[in-house]
Design the sequence.
């Protein structure tokens, strides 16, 4: 089951928050958000136009992820299309997956997405708690899975999100960090220091922002162990599966 639906290229005005400007010759095309100036952010995740803390980051296209000692980076690839759909950072027996999406300029979408994720998990027989966290509201989920022994277990996962200027960044934390706050600190720092590069092109809401393999550009961190792997869906698979009785 899809966890986050892709944007419709033929989006209608109902898909986007209404434009508050008067209609005229410069009115944006229906279904797309207008490019306007946004106030600076005071904490991360950051927008590329913000005064970003000076850290070495890996340039992955739509996101720039800070390099952390001991981390392993994986680029998730859709096997059917070959498109890179997400980035996973493995650190201290835990994994953080991040994906960046286009969003309307006038309002955030995390509240809506959070409700959709919760509904998807509960329909599969899992449980979800909507709790306050370091980035605002987040979901702590227990996702039903089938263990290698054929038994039914539950896999813990944390869903975190950040609404930015015309973008949304989603994170999924699995492994030990999903249930241990101390273990989660380093991955939370990775998420909070990630920079989103939205670009200026018009995109429908929820359109996945393009990613690419890290480049050795000046000011970027040296690439850690980077491997392509199949597209990651935290509801259906993952090497961190543990049985909870």
Sequence:
């Amino acid at each position: 089951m899809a966890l986050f639906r892709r944007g419709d290229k033929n989006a209608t005005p109902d898909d986007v928050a209404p434009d508050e400007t008067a209609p005229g010759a410069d009115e944006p095309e229906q279904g797309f958000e207008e490019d306007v100036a946004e106030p600076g952010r005071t904490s991360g995740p950051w927008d590329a136009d913000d005064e970003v803390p000076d850290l070495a980051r890996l340039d992955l296209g739509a996101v720039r992820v800070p390099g952390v000692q001991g981390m392993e980076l994986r680029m998730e690839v859709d096997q059917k299309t070959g498109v890179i759909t997400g980035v996973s950072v493995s650190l201290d027996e835990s994994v953080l997956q991040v994906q960046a999406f286009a969003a309307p300029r006038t309002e955030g979408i995390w509240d809506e997405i959070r409700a959709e994720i919760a509904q998807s998990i509960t329909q599969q027989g899992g449980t979800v708690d909507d709790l306050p966290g370091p980035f605002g509201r987040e979901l702590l989920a227990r996702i039903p899975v089938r263990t290698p022994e054929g038994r039914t277990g539950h896999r813990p996962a944390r869903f975190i999100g950040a609404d930015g200027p015309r973008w949304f960044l989603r994170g999924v934390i699995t492994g030990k960090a999903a249930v241990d706050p101390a273990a989660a600190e380093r991955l939370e720092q990775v998420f909070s220091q990630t920079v989103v590069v939205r670009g200026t092109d018009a995109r429908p809401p929820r359109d996945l922002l393009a990613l690419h393999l890290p480049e050795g550009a000046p000011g970027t961190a040296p690439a850690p162990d980077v491997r392509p792997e199949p597209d990651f869906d935290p509801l259906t698979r993952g090497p961190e599966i543990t049985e909870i009785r």
Q: What stands out?
A: Helices lie at 110-123, 181-192. The chain has one domain: 42-230. The chain is about 10% helix and 35% strand. Residues 42-230 form a domain with the Protein Transport Mog1p; Chain A fold (CATH 3.40.1000).
